Amino acid sequence: MLKLLDEQIVPYDSSSGLYATQSIVENGVIGVGDQFLAGAQDYDDRYVGMNAMISKLRGSFDIAKFDRQDVENILDIGCGSGNATMALATMFPDAKIVATDLSPNLLEILAKKTRATGIDDRVSCIIADASTIKLKPQSFDIICGSSMLHHLDDPEAVLNGYISALSSDGIGLFYEPFHVGYFVLRQILVGLIHLAKFNKGIPEADIAVFNTLIYGIDFVSAKDRSDPVLKNLDDKWLFSREMFKRVAEKNSRTLFVYTANPAHEGYQDKISNMLFSVTGNHPDWPAWAVDYFKDIDNAERGELANDVLMEGCIVFK
Question: Do 22 and 128 form a contact (C-beta atoms < 8 A)?
Answer without folding.
Answer: no
